[in-house]
Amino acid sequence: MGGVVMIKVKDCWDQLSSRVQQKIVSHHPHVSGDSSRKELTDPLYWESYLKELNRDEKAVVHWMALERGEVGLSFRDLRGNDLPLRPVPFRVALTRLRQRGVVYAVRQKWGETFYIIPGDIREAWLKSVLTDATAPAENVEVTALAPPGSVHDLFHLMVMIDRDGLPLTEKGDVRRRAAQKMDVELETEGEAFADARWINRNGGPTGFHIVFQIAEWCGLLTAETGRWALKRQALDTWLTMSYKGAAAYVYQQVKRALLQENPRLAAVLWWMEQQSEWVSVRDMALMWLQKTEKPERNWKALADAWMKTCLRPFHSLGWIDWGECLSGTAWRWSVFSPFVEGKDAVEQRWFVQPNFEWLIPFNFPLDLRWKAAQFADLVQTDRLCTYVLSGDSVKRGLAKGWTAEDIVQFLKRYSAVPLPQNVVASIRQWEKNLIGPVRLERVLLMSCEDEHIARQLSTDPSIGPSFRRRLGGRHFVVDEQSAGRLVRQLEAAGYPPFTIERSGAAEDASSQPVAGDKKHRLQVENRYPELTEAVPGLERLPKLWTSTMRLYHPSTLIKLVERAVEMQLELEWRRPRSDRCDILRPIRVFNTDGVWKVEGLDQKEEAKEIELQHIGEVRIRVPELT
Q1: Which residues, at least 6 apart from 588, have a Cβ–Cβ distance to it below 8 Å?
Q2: I want to staple 358 with a disulfide (CB 3.0 to 4.6 A). Which of 122, 257, 387, 540 is the partner?
Q3: Which residues have C-beta within 8 Å of that of residue 195, sequence separation ≥ 6?
Q4: Residue-wise burial string across 172-196, b where 16 or more C-beta atoms lie within 10 A, e elsewhere
Q5: Beta carbons within 8 Å of 581's beta carbon, 6+ residues apart
Q6: In the sheet where 377-381 sits, what is the strand order?
Q7: Which sign does the torsion angle of CA 46, 51, 57, 60 carry?
Q8: Residue 571 parent element (H or E)
Q9: In what order do the strands lie in the sheet with 227-230?
Q10: Angle formed by the axes of helices 281-291 and 299-306, nearest 10°
Q11: What is the model's pLDDT at position 509?
Q12: pLDDT value at position 253?
């Protein structure tokens, strides 16, 4: 199998010379210049341009987009038996598609060349041929709503690591007791991933291991001596995303990992992402078999493979709801997925109750939930996240630099109702009981040039919440862990700060979540291919062997058939004293007991074995290359 190649058409186009670009543009007569590559990413353009492709070209695009996905075609693949066309017609069509700028030759970091349709071109083509491919399922009865899922559990895992740490053994593994303790507090069900090889490589996954792996993919963790630690700036960037933005980011990292193991699912996932209604798993499998021209009787095996690989894991990650319809199991995207618009949580409020329970909506801004988790404990997740305020949790908050007044004011800011007086009194009393007359804390001090600027920044809705408290008219106390976000916000507002003795928290203000290793830029072949390249060695093939049917001496006939095998070209032949011509794609020539034979496939792809002495007139068929 070829390698996994993830690339966009712009990345390919930018590596081509102007001469090569102009040659490609010549195949798109109704557009000019750079717009041709842009048109290829437009489904509407494909609806008309598809008519310009011949039958073989359409077959190759169809097969590469639907069945190969992000799997590049290697030279070895081009000589295989899994192609939708015979090898030479396939290579000719592939070369024509390269000339049109639909397929590109790219070189992987280990030096091997692959042929690939860039992702955005593939998606545009899919959109043009898969629109309304199957009708939404009707009369669906909901059987299981999605759990809170990946964002919630990933957030809570980060909270637990920040609160309790995550120690490693001498071998560098997470300590079993720590993993078991955290697993109990996570909602993700490991059993749903039992057959998902893209994430479960060791068998028997737990919710902790699944969420921990996702945290690594999202670039939120770093290994230090004896422990795992949070990448503070990367985490800070993720926390400041909207809930849907955070969910989309996690989904993209999970999707990338899934496609690395199952790249042929790229088209399936793309199609799933376009759905907004209930989808019958059976109807989806039947539709896909029809589009890929496979026997419909295999739908159960295909549906079962999808269930194991992505549907069940996606439900556990909170992205899919289950239902039942007349044709069996159905699915739809859940409110926790990136594909369903939910209510704007910023306009919502939380509720603090007299029993010290604090109810927060799931999709409340994550950076505010992170602050809440510093002095409250999550105890339940249902329709809302239930946190509890206690002496121990407030003590933890005080140790992180909060004061009782900070906590009370924070609770008031987004509360839907007045704070219960017993809660306010208890928080203040806990502070008195826990803290002596002297307090030492690590914070950052931000100073403004004058009170006007200070007032302007404190009232800015994107900047004000980053301040812990105001000191006098020009100064603010800032948490170290909020410094990176604050620097970016100040720069966006036109007030880039001058930093003295920058702390580690502020050193990388531009840090973003990092998913995996630094990407290696794929090298695109900067050359316009000629059709003769589809049949290597064609110029050295004797024209006598390809021009007309004729008889040959047995020794010459052996050489002719061997050359056809080597070049994967077809033979047109007839038996002695016969007027009927047959077509054979020879696979091998061999000698048995002194008799030379050729083995190959006829036009019906049926295996044939023919003695060379039974071949009369013959010629090698050469494809049309004009």
Answers
A1: 565, 598, 599, 600
A2: 387
A3: 308, 309
A4: eebeeebbeebbebbbbbbebbeeb
A5: 549, 572, 573, 574
A6: 351-352, 357-360, 385-388, 377-381
A7: positive
A8: strand 571-573
A9: 166-167, 227-230, 221-224
A10: 120
A11: 40
A12: 93
Closest CA to 386 of 210, 143, 148: 148
**Rounded Cα distance, 620 and 556, in Å:** 13
- HSE of 207 in the Cβ direction (CA atoms, 13 Å)? 21
CA 170, distance to chain mean position in Å, is 34
The 10s digit of each residue's pLDDT in 166-175 is 988 888 888 8
The CA distances from residue 159 to 153, 166, 211, in Å, are: 10, 11, 13
The mean-pLDDT minimum among 209-218, 308-317, 375-384, 491-500 falls in: 491-500
User: Could you say which DSSP state residue 460 is in?
Assistant: -
Name which of 77, 2, 72, 8 is nearest 38 in CA terms: 8
* CA nearest to 262, candidates 194, 310, 303, 299: 310
Contacts (Cβ under 8 Å, ≥6 apart) of 55: none
Which letter, b or e, does each residue of 458-485 get, where b requires 16 or more Cβ atoms within 10 Å of its Cβ?
eeeeebebbbbeeeeebebbbbbbbbbb
Q: What confidence tens digit (pLDDT) does each residue in 192-217 have?
A: 998 888 886 555 689 999 999 999 99
Q: Return d(Cα 499, Cα 396) in angstroms, integer.
A: 29
pLDDT digits (tens, 9 = 90+) for 546-572: 999 999 999 999 999 999 999 999 999
- Residue 367 CA from chain centroid, whole number: 25
Please, are residues 120 and 8 in contact by the beta-carbon 8 Å criterion? yes
Cα dihedral 58, 61, 62, 63 sign? positive
pTM for this structure?
0.76
What mean pLDDT is reported for the chain?
87
Q: Give CB contacts under 8 A, 24+ apart, made by 166-169.
A: 166/227, 166/228, 166/229, 167/226, 167/227, 168/223, 168/226, 168/227, 168/228
**Nearest alpha-carbon partner for 45 in 3, 5, 100, 108:** 100
Q: How is residue 120 written in tokens?
A: 């955005």
SS3 203: coil
Residues in CB range of 250: below 8 A, 6 or more apart: 150, 151, 154, 214, 218
Helix (H) / strand (E) containing 287? helix 281-291
Tell me, what DSSP letter sits at residue 622? -
Distance CA 172, CA 7 (A): 35
d(CA 114, CA 116): 6
Q: Which two tokens stand for residue 585?
A: 């794609």
Nearest CA among 444, 471, 457, 526 for reference residue 12:
526
Question: Which run of H or E residues covers position 261?
Answer: helix 243-261
Q: Give the up-direction half-sphere exposure of residue 392: CA atoms within 13 A in the CB hemisphere.
A: 3
* Alpha carbons 345 and 326: distance in angstroms, whole number: 36
Please say whether the beta carbons of 322 and 137 come within 8 A. no
CA distance 194 to 240: 33
> What distance in Å separates the CA atoms of residue 317 and residue 319, rounded to the nearest whole number?
6
Give the tens place of pLDDT for each residue, 366-418: 999 999 999 999 999 888 899 999 999 999 999 888 899 999 999 998 899 99
